[in-house]
């Protein structure tokens, strides 16, 4: 049986789909992160948890879930593996046993210095300069906000990470 080409609808070509470009980019980014994080001995989701804890050590599980857009069913096993690896400790709040605080161990804190170059390595491997990286971050934030029906907000973290040269109006 031979395949017959169908009449072309340019809007339905695979390469015309934004979703496919995002999917392909996500796979490439995650593969690069896997390589960059191998020396640290953490997975990408563990790295994301560490990033939040490096900002706010002692965060609650609900705060982590909110920041990372993860459900507790996904987050709890992840935190358990991180605790088993000696990166974090979990303790229940004395005021409310339903609240669990996650704190970095010394090993978790020590990884921060070793992870310092990971973000820059990623965008440099991607062939983007600081301005392009900041613009891509802003566009992705705007796309996510618009699709979620939320008001897009300027994220000062982008400016802080990429510097004033990256600011585009």
UniProtKB/TrEMBL annotation:
Residues 15-145 form the HTH marR-type domain. InterPro entries: HTH_MarR-typ, MarR/SlyA-like, Transc_reg_Sar_Rot_HTH, WH-like_DNA-bd_sf, WH_DNA-bd_sf. It is found in: Cytoplasm. GO terms for biological process: response to stress. Keywords: Cytoplasm, DNA-binding, Transcription, Transcription regulation. It holds the Pfam family Staph_reg_Sar_Rot. GO terms for molecular function: DNA binding; DNA-binding transcription factor activity. GO terms for cellular component: cytoplasm. Its main location: cytoplasm. The keyword Transcription regulation applies. PANTHER family: ORGANIC HYDROPEROXIDE RESISTANCE TRANSCRIPTIONAL REGULATOR (PTHR33164:SF5), TRANSCRIPTIONAL REGULATOR, MARR FAMILY (PTHR33164). This is Transcriptional regulator, MarR family. It comes from Sanguibacter keddieii (strain ATCC 51767 / DSM 10542 / NCFB 3025 / ST-74).
